[in-house]
Predict the 3D structure of the following.
Amino acid sequence: MTQPTKFLPSRFRRALLYVVEALGSVSVTKLQKVLYLADLEHHALTGTTMTGARWVRYTHGPMAKALLPSTQVVDGHEIEVSNEPVGPYDARVYRPGPAPRFRPNLAPEEKATLDRILALVRQLTTKDAIALAYNTAPMRLLQRIEGETGQIQLDVEIPFELDDATSADVASPEPAADVAAVVAFKRRERERVRDLQEAAISRATR
């Protein structure tokens, strides 16, 4: 007899469920960007990521290798996934599921980090969420390497560990947007990795 797939509430699955429940409905691409930004901020604050996922770059920005197997485990239970038109394209859309077997049960600092990212990204289009993720220091570093070597940096691991010199080198000098939530987010990033570019932040708050 085939054994059922385990649905242990890993760190990634708990964060995934929290975001889907908070947004109610979210495309897979935007979902990935929320989790990536939360992992990046949590890493800046604690030295470790929240989800434990391995993030790689693909065409539409950061992608977690853990998403597909986690989706297969929780689809139809904690979440429900369907293919739907989103703008001019079809997309996989995540919603809370009909038969949850576990709750997110995040630590207070994890919940606070996700809530900050959700407040920043909630109203963004998927296109703007992609732009925001692409304007983080690790992604800008990969793009710089791509420009210098002429080699496309796809399916390569995104480097969360950046020293101060590298972080400063890929940061933008443009002034930050005058929005309290964004300024607070930017301040935390600058203390460690100077992560978000102000151009992306301005786009996020228009």
